[in-house]
Structure formats: C-alpha cells, structure tokens
Amino acid sequence: xxxxxxxxxxxxxxxxxxxxxxxxxxxxxxxxxxxxxxxxxxxxxxxxxxxxxxxxxxxxxxxxxxxxxxxxxxxxxxxxxxxxxxxxxxxxxxxxxxxxxxxxxxxxxxxxxxxxxxxxxxxxxxxxxxxxxxxxxxxxxxxxxxxxxxxxxxxxxxxxxxxxxxxxxxxxxxxxxxxxxxxxxxxxxxxxxxxxxxxxxxxxxxxxxxxxxxxxxxxxxxxxxxxxxxxxxxxxxxxxxxxxxxxxxxxxxxxxxxxxxxxxxxxxxxxxxxxxxxxxxxxxxxxxxxxxxxxxxxxxxxxxxxxxxxxxxxxxxxxxxxxxxxxxxxxxxxxxxxxxxxxxxxxxxxxxxxxxxxxxxxxxxxxxxxxxxxxxxxxxxxxxxxxxxxxxxxxxxxxxxxxxxxxxxxxx
Amino acid sequence: xxxxxxxxxxxxxxxxxxxxxxxxxxxxxxxxxxxxxxxxxxxxxxxxxxxxxxxxxxxxxxxxxxxxxxxxxxxxxxxxxxxxxxxxxxxxxxxxxxxxxxxxxxxxxxxxxxxxxxxxxxxxxxxxxxxxxxxxxxxxxxxxxxxxxxxxxxxxxxxxxxxxxxxxxxxxxxxxxxxxxxxxxxxxxxxxxxxxxxxxxxxxxxxxxxxxxxxxxxxxxxxxxxxxxxxxxxxxxxxxxxxxxxxxxxxxxxxxxxxxxxxxxxxxxxxxxxxxxxxxxxxxxxxxxxxxxxxxxxxxxxxxxxxxxxxxxxxxxxxxxxxxxxxxxxxxxxxxxxxxxxxxxxxxxxxxxxxxxxxxxxxxxxxxxxxxxxxxxxxxxxxxxxxxxxxxxxxxxxxxxxxxxxxxxxxx
Lengths: 412, 412
What we know:
Two copies of one chain form a homodimer.
Chain A: H1 9-19, H2 37-52, E1 56-59, E2 65-69, E3 79-84, H3 97-113, E4 121-126, H4 139-144, H5 150-155, H6 164-170, E5 186-192, H7 197-201, E6 205-211, E7 213-222, E8 226-227, H8 239-255, E9 261-263, E10 267-270, E11 276-277, E12 280-289, H9 292-313, E13 316-325, E14 328-329, H10 332-344, E15 349-354, H11 359-363, E16 369-374, H12 390-408
Parallel strand pairs in A: 3-4, 3-5, 5-16, 6-15
Antiparallel strand pairs in A: 1-2, 2-4, 6-14, 6-16, 7-12, 7-13, 8-11, 9-12, 10-12
C-alpha cells in the first residue's frame, strides 16, 4: 500500500512557481522578508491551500502556522513536516519554501486518496527563520522550543525601527495559541543542501545525521604602522604577516580533521593604505565540526598557533572565542525512516551533516527530529540564482512522504 | 674661517616652535594645508624673516618662494637650500619645515656675521609638497622642474571643489615669476629621515645617496564565494588563501634582496562576511629599491610567484603594474660636501637612501641636488607625534651650513 503512494511532481513544481510570485524579483529570486506584506500574502495562500486539503490551521503567538490533518488515532502527537516561507532579501525560490510546499504536496496526496494515517500529520510554517529582517535567525522555532520567550521575539527591531510585535499585528498573524502549546510527536524537515556535496557525488538525497557545531573567534594582530618606503624589512612589525600565518593555520587545522571546516571570511587591515605597513589586522574565524571533542581540539590547535606566531613574529595577538553553537544530533529512528524512504523511492542517497543551522536544530530539543536534503546547483544559496531541478524537488517530497508513512507504522 | 661659522641652535628651535603655532593642533602637531590661511600666515612670516636677513624674495606663478642673498659673484647661479612649509592634515612639526627653517637659520648666521659667500645663496619654500589638499604631491617643485605645467597645477581640485588656481589667488601668493625662471646652481635639502635607521644606529646625520625607485602593483585573486558551513575544505576555491601566499611572497622577494622593501598595505576581501568563503581578494603591492635592475628582478619574481600560486591553488589571479617612479641618484660632488660638512661638525653619519619621495627628486632633474637627513623618533612621520630633538635639528642645520660653504669654495 505505502509504496503505491506517489506525490505529484507537477503539482509541487506549480506550487513552487505560484508562490515565487509573492515577492518575486526580476532576476528570478524572491524578496519575502518575514511579516512583510508579501509574507502575509503567501501565508494567506498557504492557509487556504491547507484548509482545502482537509486541515485545520492554528497560528501561535509568534505567527508559527500549524496545519493539522487528523489520523486514525487522536491519542498520539502529530508527525510534523515543514520549514519556512520567509526569504533573504535577495533569496532564492527553494530555501525553506521547498520544505513547506513539499509537505503541502504530501498532504494533498494523502487527501486526494483519502488515505488515513495512524497518527495525525501536521505541516508547519515557522516564522522568521532567515533572521534577515529581525535578528536572530530561527526565531519562531526558537520560541516554540523555549530557547527564546515571546517578549524577546516581540522586542526584535528591524532596520526601520519597526518591532516584531508591531509587524506581526500589522499583518494579522498574531495567533491565539501559546508558543509551544501545539504538540509535535516527530519532525521531518526537507531542505536544499546549500552546499555542493550531493551534486558533486551525483546523489539525489541527503540523509541528514545532524548539524555541525560552530565556534566563532575574533583575532586582532597588532604591530606598528610605518612608512613602506623608509622602514627596512628587518625593522618592521607588519601585522599583516602575522595574520597571513594564522589564516593559513586555520585552513591547515580544518584540513587535518575532516570533515571539519575552518574559514577566515572577514578581514580588516588598518590603516589600509598602499604606502603604510599594516599596524593592525582584525579577522574572524569560523570553525565547524559535528563533534564537540573535535571542536575542542581545533580550538587548542588555534591557540597553539597563536602562541607560535607570537613568538615567531614578535607581534601582539589577541584571540577571543565570541560565539558557539553546539552540534545537533538527529534522532536515529527518524533517520532510519528517511533512509528507508529513499531506498523505497529508488533514489541514490548518502549520509550528510548540515553545515548551516535550521529550524530543526531547535525543534530537535523538544521532539525527535531529522532532515532530508536535496541538491542545489553549485551549492549556491541565499542568492537569486539558487536552483534545484523539478525532479530533485519531487524526489525530496517523495522521500518526505515515504519517511512520514514509515514512522507512522509504529502507531498502527 | 669656515669651521668657525656656527648656527644658533636656540634661534632655530625657537623658529620651529614659533611657526608651529600657524595651524598648530591641540595634540602638538600641525594642520597647515597648502594655500590655506595658515599657509598664508607662515608664508608672510617667512618672507618678513628672509627680508630681515638681507634677502630679496621672489614668488613664482605656482607660489614657490625664493629668498636670494647675493654673493661676491653675480655670474654664478645660487646655491639653494630649502624644503616645504605645508603639512599633512595631522602632520608634525618637522617634516619639510626643518629644511626651510634650518636654511633660514643659515641665512641669519651668514647675515649676522656679515659673511660674504662666493656664489649667491638662496632659500626655497616649495608649494604643496604634501599633496594632501591638492594631489599630486611635490607639485610646486614638479612645475619648477618642468614635470608638470602651470595649467595642470591650476586645475588641481581639493575635496571641497576649490581649484589650486582659486586657492593661490585667494591667499595672494600667485607670483609674477614664471615657474623655472629662477635659476638654481645646486640644491641641498635637509629633511627628517621619516624612517628608523639613523635612530637605531645612533647616527645623527644621513648622507643621502638618492631616492629609491618605486613600483606599485594591484592584484585581484578570484575564487568562488560559498557558505562556510556547507562547503567541504576540498571543494573550496578560497581567494584569501591565494592572497596570503602572494602576500608572503612579496615579503620574501624583498627580504632576499636587501635593501629592497616590499609591502602589501591595502587588502579588500569580498564579500567580507564571517560565514562566507572569500570569493575575491584585492590587494596592493609596493616594491622599492635604489636600482632599476633590481626592481626588474623583483617584478620577475613577483610574476613567477603569481604563476606558481595559480597552478598550486587553481585560483584566477590578475597582477597589474599600475605606477612606477624611477630611482633618483643624487650628485656626487654635493654628496661629498655633505660628508665633509658632517665630519667638520664631528657628527656620526652614515650613507642612506631615501624611501619617500621629496622635492629634491624633481629638482635633481634640472640642477645638481642632494639631501641631508636627521633622525626622527621611532621613525614616525605624517603624524602629530613626529619628534626630532633640538640637538638633532641643530646638527642638521650645521651640516647644511657646512655643506653650502664647502660647495661655495669652488667659486672662490
């Protein structure tokens, strides 16, 4: 029976293209900032579609939307799908959106066949995953999971001085349900990979094991500003030459510990003038790995490199850990359902770790959770050029359906 | 007779402190931009002091001031001293100013004793050496030497849109003399070193052999922007890691060819975000050496390094030569006079090459020229903290006087 349930690839693609008009940009992307008029438009559309597919839609106090389709049993918490419909200012058509609309396609498939699941099935649209209009990111799912409270969310302010509270009231999406009150029994989030691994290996499905831990550092190297023409090489204290050694150390530390990644993305040179030897260089470090122990080891290697470069160059170097996000490990039972779902669909799959954070990181704190990845062209995301093929979107939706039904069997 | 002529250290220091009030800053520096009201005030003071010392002052069409003290012979061109009285926006009390006021102290010494030289002696205040208000630098001496024409100088515009022509008329320093028409038989310019060598070696006098040649390059390294979290180390095209290799190559190329200097002073990383792998890095290179042949060799080594890093990293790298200033070699006969002057004064001296450019670079094209350096604390210049001790200023002025008189002997 289960294997016969097939999502409708064309219906899914049509929904992706239809909703892409809410905030669509001339260059083929979407600018649909959270709680904007475009966000209201896509939310209204989403609510109507869910209701037409036999669901009851509940909105909570931070605008998270929950579309519930009853199952045979009312005594078990719903199996949830979903992601987010907000985008970056120059976002693409798939980041977050695919996870919501594929869930809607699953609901439509079940509804069209009159298929009764054991557990209720629920589709979620989380508010403000992107964090572009209101920082921080993953705000709606964070309030749901108790990471933030409602007052904190309400107090967030956009660049024009408008608060989250004012914005949510303005579009009429302040729901009556208290955040966290809508139960979730398990959560499956389909998402584009936002990286190049699946495409490079010709895999259609990423079976997501967890999300990397992240540690951020800030480094300031201090030497002595001086004239490039009149200061002999041997009398210089060139801060940039300390920075280059550490930038290369960051790369080497990550390369030596696969699948670690380590990156210096931001560099500021002072005074940044062609004929002045740099007196100070500031840069950021981003380390990621799925295990805290390896992150500890990378941090130790970084501090050792700092000490070595200090001794070698005589420069002053300050290195501070400024932020960390612990690794997330997804639920083995749900991961097994995704694996089974990919096999049943005959799709090439590989285990994968998510680099970016997702709503599922927070939901995982309060309910068994996992994610499904599909490829995106050249790994490009947060960009109007973001691209995933119709067959890849359909594959993701089919695995999502298969995984939900696999998990549902335990409630038979 | 010659050895008995001594400048007055206190009178020189008092002049330095008196004129430091024209544009003096609370932090002990000077902001005396060229052709400003402060520049007019110091020019008026300078003219009056020169006339009081028995000189005739001529101003040329770009504001260069020439104070002439007649000698025994009218048939030889004057032996000139001088430098500039304009400063950087947060300049110090010595850069340029010492060369002019030490020349004035020499004139006062000669005048006070009624000493008659063989050749006429002349003191010059060049307009707009700094180039801070009107680019380029060394504009007045450049017009004098025929490097630029008057129309070019007049057309220069400051940040407020005021032209050089408007500014010079506004302070009444458009002279009648055609630029280049005032003859110079030889030129001695005293200046602070603007570098750390003399101080480090405990030398009081730098016998300047010439000015380094300069070559500037611009490099753009292009890779691929990508998410730091989702892009494995082995699939990256990190432009910053190509840039660090070349920045270190610039250092190594200069270190291997003393007294070469090589510096990357300006670096721009794009998009310069903590969680984005750098897709593009732009940076400047400044190479200097006293010989063109060595600069050619450094350039060849740079292009070889670019090719090597291209192959090693697979990044695209564009490296363009954007500007060069040929080396300047000062006049052996004048250099010998400076050496003799330092010996006569019993001052520790060393031969030195100037890193920065000076008015003397242009004057050297039309008349025998050299320079005398004195130390400045920590090599710091173009800074309100610029500092040279009274004894060092006096030493420079004494060597200047001795060198002028040594050169004057040939006209006996």
